[in-house]
Amino acid sequence: MNIILKLVVNALAVFAAAYLLPGVSVESFTTAIVVAIVLGVLNLVVKPLLILLTIPITIVTLGLFLLIINALIVLMCSSLVSGFEVDGILYALLFSLVVSLISSFMESLAKKSD
Predict the structure, then answer these.
(1) Which pTM was predicted?
(2) Do 29 and 15 contact (CB within 8 A), yes or no?
(3) Does residue 24 form part of some domain?
(4) Distances from the Cα of 4 to the Cαs of 8, 27, 37, 51, 92, in angstroms?
(5) What is the rounded CA–CA span in Å between residue 28 and residue 1?
(6) 103: domain range?
């Protein structure tokens, strides 16, 4: 049940971020659920490889390059999921920040109600 709750929270965060950012569009809530699943898989599989390959530049930038890696993951997701479009790396960066903030806030609300 915990995984389903996290999936719904992330899908709501994706949907809200698409509503807030003009350069991001999501067709429906079903597409938002698919985006949440694909983002989860990409973060599980691709992101660690990208982090490993970019350790030197991440150290030089004091970790700020991880934001670019997050934006690249969002752009990969937009190329894989039809109905989810991001207009550039800046909107991908903002999207990843907004989704992180909204999902953290919603998960903290869910933990308070338990």
Answers:
(1) 0.90
(2) yes
(3) yes
(4) 6, 21, 11, 28, 25
(5) 23
(6) 2-107
